[in-house]
Amino acid sequence: MLKKQPHRITRSDVAREAGTSVAVVSYVINNGPRPVAQATKKRVLDAIKKIGYRPNGIARALASGTTQTYGLVVPDISNPFISSMAHALQREAFSRGQVLLLGDAGDSRQRELELINNLLHRQVDGLLYTSVDRHPYIELIQASGTPFVMLDRVDPALKINTIRVDERAAAFQATQHLIEHGYRDIAIICGPLDMLNTQDRVNGWRDALQQADLAIHNEWIFSTSYTRPGGYLAAQQMLKGPLPQALFATNELQAFGCLRAMAEHHLSAPQDLALVCFNGTIESEYNVPSLTTVRQPVDAMAKIAIDMLKNGDGTPTIREFDFSLQIGESCGCCSSKKINFLI
Fold first, then answer.
1. Coil, helix or strand for 140?
2. Is 152 exposed, middle or buried (0-12, 13-18, 19+ CB in 10 A)?
């Protein structure tokens, strides 16, 4: 025997309980377009509470032309930097009355495409987007008419809303910091060489070495995935040859993997190999040794990104943010320190 479905409470039920019309119930729920006397409004609100009515979000979206949702598409949510950015975006969106729908591409171009199509079909009010390899599906999103903001550098000629830091300049500063310590033999663990962000970070490393008249050893460019296992395997490969004095890892996860490989060879940072990395998070500060790392202002970036979606007038805007170099123990700047916990 089929179980009888419970009766779905409607605005008609609310109107009946409050002794008013369905139109008046709608005016109360939507705060307009016509005013409702305070006593009548109270009766409607009391009826809603008593019978447990919940407005139909889909119907409201159709009527208002907004779903009160944004979509976020990222390459890999397991990356601590990406998850910290997603968290900041979710918090900022929620503070503006929006829900953020997350799409994790898992470093797959095909899955990225499917996620974008899915979110567009859901008629999200806007998209926040970081492409797997910086070759985003711009035309697809533009054809939908959906506002969107890229969370990474893209070709300025595309004339789209973008927030970014100058990754080449950031990589330059991180490498220059090692040079200022007196290190001359500096290697790099980077991402896949066909990725544009890898190219930016490698070029920043090259720029710093060239400015200091230091040799660039191509055999000390270790390309791998932006993951802990990638950093671990690249470091194992590096440790088979002559050991450099210092290393620039182009993301935090690679640095963690590198430290694991070093430990297996009874090596440590900075005593045997100084280390700095890119896109650090709070994890860098709590690591042993704490990592010297380039940090991006994710909270400020999230605020501006949501502003672009919420208040944009259609004019393409590029906002570039300052990065900072968070000094830790891994480069040799300071000895082990106690972290002050805020409780």
1. helix
2. middle
Q: Using alpha carbons only, give the angle 89, 290, 223 rounded to the nearest 5 degrees.
A: 75
pTM of the model: 0.78
Q: How far apart are CA 277 and CA 326, in angstroms?
A: 10
How far apart CA 140 and CA 118 sit, in angstroms, is 12
111-128 CB burial, b ≥16 within 10 A, e <16: bbeebbeebbeeebbbbb
pLDDT, tens only, 17-46: 889 998 888 888 777 778 888 989 889 888
Task: Give me the residues paired with residue 163 across strands.
Answer: 319
Which of 182, 154, 153, 192 lies closest to 170, judged by CA?
A: 153
User: Cα separation of 155 and 134, whole Å?
Assistant: 9
Q: Give me 235's structure tokens.
A: 């470091």
Would you state the structure tokens that stand for residue 315, as one six-digit string? 């004019």
For 310, the token pair is 């919420």
Q: What does the pLDDT look like over 295-338, one tens digit per residue? A: 999 999 999 999 999 887 778 889 999 999 999 999 999 755 55
| Tokens 């900041």 sit on residue | 88
